[in-house]
């Protein structure tokens, strides 16, 4: 009888140990970490952002599968909704306009918090969650050379007020009629330039014209690597002409529900440190210096103290 009593007690203890997560749960009584599939569109900035997300998750024990360079948003967004990928890097205003084309739920604004709130409402029916946004953006920006910025004391777009009348603006041919280009500069900032030179949409013609002093102010995208490579000065949009295209991770809500909150915390820690200058420097390293996205992302995460 004693031997049976001892055996029964042993079984009871084993059952209790198993119930407390003694085996097969990742240890320490915590649930196993969910696997994560990180996606991106086919653009070098997107691949670097995907690497940032992937590497910080891997450093914290998550198994990550990379599905980068999938194509345009028309491919990546449905892949996210269907579960072919679990998360990607997005741009607030552009994604909101994409998922809510008629603006029935919300319309993008120049305020990132307001745009993020509207975007979340549009993503709710799709079971997607937008996490914290970064200060870094990829949107229209107006730049000048370092020499022009120094001589005219230019730091923000409104600083152009006393000097614009003597300057030439350069940008895409449609710029004079666009509300986020020359038309917006006049309506929002009250700026009238001496002349306009039709070039390209934030490309090599605009960079060359700035470099060659054929124009004084040029339209480039705020994350363009040439801003760092050429030491151009990106003027602060202090009156918020541009829609808020701040970078933010968008994640399948089902993944967040499986997790203990660590994924959300880790991704938000990247957004908290991703400034415009930091993003532009990484873009320059990849696009101009031809460094590998993976190496650039790892170096940045280590510099920020986010991985060892």
Write the topology of this structure.
Blueprint: H1 2-19, E1 36-39, H2 44-58, E2 64-67, H3 73-82, E3 87-91, H4 92-99, H5 112-123, E4 128-130, E5 140-144, H6 146-152, E6 168-171, H7 182-189, E7 195-198, H8 204-211, E8 217-221, H9 226-229, E9 233-234, E10 247-252, H10 253-258, H11 262-273, H12 276-287, H13 293-303
Write structural notes for this entry.
It is a single chain. By secondary structure, the protein is an alpha/beta fold. The chain has two domains: 34-137 and 245-303, Periplasmic binding protein-like II (D-Maltodextrin-Binding Protein, domain 2, 3-Layer(aba) Sandwich); 140-234, D-Maltodextrin-Binding Protein, domain 2, CATH 3.40.190.120. Helix content is 43%, strand content 14%. It has 13 helices and ten strands. The chain has helices spanning 2-19, 44-58, 73-82, 92-99, 112-123, 146-152, 182-189, 204-211, 226-229, 253-258, 262-273, 276-287, 293-303; strands spanning 36-39, 64-67, 87-91, 128-130, 140-144, 168-171, 195-198, 217-221, 233-234, 247-252. Strands 7-6-8-5-9 form a five-stranded mixed sheet. A three-stranded antiparallel sheet has the order 3-10-4, sandwiched between helices. Strands 1-2 form a two-stranded parallel sheet. Helix 7 links the parallel strand 6 (168-171) and strand 7 (195-198). Helix 4 (92-99) packs parallel to helix 5. It is globular, with a radius of gyration of 25 Å. Residues 1-29 have low confidence and may be disordered.
